Amino acid sequence: MPKVIFHKHGQVFEDEVKPETNLVVRAGIKQFPYPNLRYECGMGKCSKCACKVLAGAEHLPPPNWKEKKQLGERIDQGFRLACQIWLTHDIELCQEEITA
Q1: Domain count, the chain
Q2: Quick one: how many helices (H) and strands (E) in the chain?
């Protein structure tokens, strides 16, 4: 089962998830990484669930058109939309604070 390491607010949260898991779907039904994952629409339209991939990016499919539209050059910095990825391997993510 994929292991997820999630960094936020200087804390680290870890858990295992079933293969083909989407973290926004899990958070929506109040499972890990709820309540720590920031998200909103779950459809790739708002980018609130953007996370920087610290490890495991090589196992993810290429960014889709929604990610390219919402993240732009942030993709080159390692960001992905959590709502658009389904985990099949271990991954380490960091969600930064939104700055105005």
Answers
A1: 1
A2: 2, 5
CA dihedral 20→83→70→95, nearest 10 degrees, is: -100
Q: Model confidence over 69-99: pLDDT tens digits? A: 999 999 999 999 999 999 999 999 999 876 5
Q: Is the whole model's pTM more than 0.90, yes or no?
A: yes
Domain with 43, as residue range(s), is: 3-94
Cα–Cα distance for residue pair 89/77, rounded to 1 Å: 21
Report which of 10, 6, 7 is spatially closest to residue 23, judged by C-alpha positions.
6
Q: What CATH number is given to the structural domain containing 43? A: 3.10.20.30
